[in-house]
Write a structure and sequence with these properties.
Radius of gyration: 25 Å
Bound molecules: alpha-L-arabinofuranose
Distance between the termini: 75 Å
Number of helices: 11
Number of strands: 12
Strand order of the largest sheet: 2-1-3-4-5-11
Strand content: 15-25%
Structural class: alpha/beta
Helix content: 40-55%
Shape: elongated
């Protein structure tokens, strides 16, 4: 009888082990599902960012639920709620503006879904509402643009500024970094400033109005918060008979291929890089979260500054 009981216990233990192994291996092979809310397609930078995220998800076999918010925060909030309803493993998003996220992030936390911030951050009082933030240091980008300008202009510049989307992290931070450096140079002043919403069309429209203003002649420099707005402004200058890159110095941010082409043609003077190809880092974080591995709260993307003299050599190497 005792022998029979021991034998039965051994069989039960074996079955339990088989069940556990099957469970562990099915968890390991389970497809990761990520919900990603993208801002829209306002710029060449954004297009490259979307492509990097989609191609990296496909390469790793991650199921990506991608939602384009068409530049509206309300669409992003709706998308985030639908990811919760669908029970995705991780939610990632690039917030169009900094504020107004706390309620939806609390809902996501309640549903126990980890959040990764991609490209732009949020202003929240409780940073446990997201796991990690991967993106550029926008303040530093603004500083780099101003430092380049101070060096090139000898500290003398009357600046027209094309600001990014109002209340967005890159618009706030780039302005902050730029003005921080300007404070050291009394000969450098922002004389005009208006939002071009990070788009080429709006950049052109705003530059046209700057050039039509009675005091347009004082403008020696354009600082555009992104390349697309600078490219639109270049068109406006050419149509107004102003030589971009010569009559007006231009510094912008992103480092998209179009900016390098404009630099090679002598129409843009400097672009401060902002790297959109963060798909690999994003999914490294997603995989770490799923594997319960620790992550830094912040990962800063490494970037450079490129001038006209480097454009021709750099152009063939540009990936976006
Ligand atoms: O958040 C990154 C910024 O958003 C890029 O500089 C700009 O081109 C984009 O629209």
């Amino acid at each position: 009888m005792n022998r029979l009981i021991t034998f039965r216990n051994k069989i039960l233990a074996l079955l339990a082990l088989i069940a556990l192994t099957a469970d562990v291996s099915s968890a390991a092979s389970k497809k990761i599902i990520v919900g990603f809310s993208q801002i829209g397609a306002e710029s060449g930078w954004r297009t490259a960012n979307t492509e990097s995220i989609k191609s990296e998800a496909a390469r790793r076999g991650v199921e990506l639920k991608f939602a384009d918010a068409q530049q509206k925060q309300e669409n992003q909030i709706k998308a985030l709620r639908s990811f919760v309803a669908q029970g995705v493993d991780v939610i990632a998003f690039s917030p169009i503006v900094e504020t107004g996220w706390e309620p939806v992030l609390r809902e996501i936390k309640k549903a126990k879904i980890p959040v990764v911030l991609s490209d732009r951050s949020v202003a929240v009082t409780d940073d446990s509402l997201y796991v990690t933030f991967i993106g550029s240091d926008f303040v530093e980008e603004g500083r780099r643009a101003a430092n380049w300008l101070a060096k090139t202009s000898g500290g003398k510049a009357m600046i027209a500024e094309l600001v990014g989307t109002p209340a967005s992290a890159p618009a706030i931070d780039r302005k902050k970094g730029f003005e921080e450096v300007l404070a050291k140079y009394p000969g450098m002043k922002i004389v005009k400033s208006q939002s071009g919403d990070f788009t080429r069309a709006k950049g052109k429209e705003v530059m046209e109005s700057f050039l039509k203003s009675p005091d347009a002649k004082q403008i020696t420099t354009l600082f555009a918060h992104n390349d697309d707005m600078a490219l639109g402004a270049i068109q406006a200058m050419e149509e107004a008979g102003v030589r971009p890159g010569k009559d007006i110095l231009i510094v912008s941010i992103d480092g998209v291929r179009g900016a390098f082409e404009a630099m090679a043609a002598g129409k843009l003077n400097c672009t401060v890089e902002c790297n959109p190809l963060i798909g690999p880092q994003l999914f490294d974080s997603v995989e770490a979260i799923v594997a319960h591995k620790p992550l830094p709260k912040r990962t800063v993307v490494q970037e450079g500054v490129f001038e006209q003299s480097q454009a021709a050599a750099e152009l063939p190497k540009r990936k976006y």
